[in-house]
């Protein structure tokens, strides 16, 4: 039976992809090329620097490593302006109810996100207190599909991988959870998350 639940952030608990998109799009506008929402799909679950590489690839632009750091910083400043305004209304349907339900059952809860802003976002939407561990982009070196983020989360909960379930919306995240030896619930469509043990449209389907 499951003793620990590890949650991805963007796409599972909140939809921050729209803010990442707006912030990256501003950079693309300055460079003078179009960055579409379809392009943005490629950034989901991917680290900030890797996201920048993808944006540059879409625009056919090459810049120095130094400029890359400056642009990533500029993007994050804009992104922070959006997430600073977030509140509980931005929690995805069922997210809070499901977290409470797990708490009631004594399941330990961890975050497993690529974002370096994850702790701040949990505070903004008012669910930080529900987490027994927060593993985010400030703690891990290897990005999903590497299992590091989930293995560290499970260790911080004091559990073994086969005692944990992962909730993930990105293909790379599902792959990371499988590689970690955990039960995986895909949040989204079986079309791209078919590798998961189970796929649901959203946490509201589990919280009800
Ligand atoms: P930051 P997740 C990921 O969050 C986002 O899906 C991805 O688009 C973003 O680039 C990444 O966090 C890094 O975010 O710039 O805030 O460090 O899905 O792993 O919770
Ligand atoms: Mg995600």
Automatic annotation (TrEMBL):
Q: Does the keyword Magnesium apply?
A: yes
Name the Gene Ontology biological process terms. Answer: carbohydrate metabolic process
Domain of life, source organism? Bacteria
**Residues the record marks as site: Important for catalytic activity and assists the phosphoryl transfer reaction to Asp8 by balancing charge and orienting the reacting groups:** 113, 144
Kindly give the InterPro entries that the UniProt entry links to this protein: B-phosphoglucomutase_hydrolase, Beta-PGM, HAD-like_sf, HAD-SF_hydro_IA, HAD_sf, PGP-like_dom2
Family indicated by similarity: Belongs to the HAD-like hydrolase superfamily. CbbY/CbbZ/Gph/YieH family.
Which protein, by its recorded name, is this? Answer: Beta-phosphoglucomutase
């Amino acid at each position: 039976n499951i003793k620990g639940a590890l949650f991805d952030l963007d796409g599972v608990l909140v939809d921050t992809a729209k803010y990442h998109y707006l912030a990256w799009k501003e950079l693309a506008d300055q460079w003078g090329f179009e960055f579409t929402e379809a392009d943005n799909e490629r950034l989901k679950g991917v680290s900030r620097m890797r996201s920048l590489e993808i944006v540059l690839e879409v625009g056919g632009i090459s810049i120095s490593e130094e400029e890359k750091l400056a642009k990533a910083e500029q993007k994050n400043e804009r992104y922070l302006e959006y997430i600073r305004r977030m509140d509980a209304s931005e929690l995805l349907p069922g997210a809070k109810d499901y977290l409470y339900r797990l708490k009631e059952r004594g399941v330990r809860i961890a975050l497993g996100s690529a974002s370096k802003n994850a702790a701040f976002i949990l505070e903004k939407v008012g669910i930080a207190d529900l987490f027994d561990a927060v593993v985010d982009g400030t703690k891990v070196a290897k990005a999903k599909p590497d299992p590091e983020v989930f293995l560290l989360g499970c260790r911080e909960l004091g559990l073994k991988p086969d005692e944990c379930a992962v909730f993930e919306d990105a293909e790379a995240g599902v792959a990371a959870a499988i590689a970690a030896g955990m039960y995986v619930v895909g949040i989204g469509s079986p079309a791209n998350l078919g590798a998961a043990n189970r796929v649901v449209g959203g946490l509201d389907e589990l919280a009800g």
